[in-house]
């Protein structure tokens, strides 16, 4: 769980709390990232070095690219070369990916260091599917997030009172169409 928290700190953030060219540290390794097109882009080689035990992350990335292409991953759409500062202080074109694409790349890495992250991604995906089926779970998750962020129960109640979604008051599509149709007929 400790690794997951560290990974999340790397991939989240917004421009209000970080400089545009921020370095983040994961298990003592620096990961270069760059704010581009209103989102974070990460050096793919840096992330690979952090989640593998490879002494040659560039070679690892070269081989992984071939595997990803074979799996149908559109590299040209997902990976961009951005000028990122190197350890020598100069900027070089470096393969970079946004958060979503980095998550996909990490999923393709067969490494024990990547496994906790893959399990976390699978768990989050499963939870979202459950929330689609049961909207009360979405509300419960949002309350947990706000509570974790330090918001009071009173604050949450004031903002969610009108927007409460539950099995009892959630209307499915045929019921919505039926209600809309009956309102049109009464005009």
Describe the structure.
It contains 9 helices and 5 strands; from the N terminus they run H-E-E-E-H-H-H-E-E-H-H-H-H-H. The chain is α+β, with helices and mostly antiparallel strands and 187 residues long. It has 2 domains: 2-114, no CATH class; 134-185, no CATH class. Strands 1-2-3-5-4 form a 5-stranded antiparallel β-sheet. Strand 2 and strand 3 form a beta hairpin. It starts with a helix and ends with a helix.
How many angstroms does the end-to-end distance come to?
Answer: 58 Å
If you average the pLDDT, what whole number results? 77
The amount of helix comes to 40-55%
How would you classify the helix and strand content by structural class?
A: alpha+beta
General form: globular
- SSE pattern: HEEEHHHEEHHHHH
The gyration radius over C-alpha positions equals 22 Å
Number of domains: 2
| Major sheet | 5 strands, antiparallel
The number of distinct β-strands equals 5
Query: Helix count?
Result: 9
Describe the structure concisely:
Helix 6 packs across helix 7. The chain has helices at 2-11, 44-51, 57-70, 75-78, 99-107, 115-133, 135-148, 153-160, 173-185, and strands at residues 23-26, 29-36, 39-43, 79-85, 91-98. It has 187 residues and is an alpha+beta fold.
């Amino acid at each position: 769980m400790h690794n997951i928290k560290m990974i999340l700190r790397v991939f989240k953030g917004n421009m209000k709390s970080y400089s545009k060219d921020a370095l983040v540290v994961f298990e003592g390794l620096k990961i270069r990232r760059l704010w581009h097109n209103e989102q974070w882009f990460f050096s793919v080689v840096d992330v690979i070095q952090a989640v593998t035990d490879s002494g040659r992350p560039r070679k690892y990335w070269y081989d992984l690219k071939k595997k990803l292409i074979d799996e149908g991953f559109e590299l040209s759409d997902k990976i961009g070369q951005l000028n990122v500062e190197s350890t020598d202080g100069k900027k070089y074109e470096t393969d970079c990916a946004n958060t979503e694409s980095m998550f996909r790349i990490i999923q393709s890495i067969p490494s024990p260091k990547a496994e906790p992250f893959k399990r976390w991604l699978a768990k989050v995906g499963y939870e979202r599917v459950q929330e689609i089926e049961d909207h009360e779970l979405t509300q419960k998750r949002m309350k947990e997030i706000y509570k974790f962020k330090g918001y009071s129960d009173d604050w949450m109640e004031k903002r969610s009172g009108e927007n409460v979604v539950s099995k009892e008051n959630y209307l499915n599509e045929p019921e919505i169409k039926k209600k809309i149709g009956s309102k049109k007929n009464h005009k």
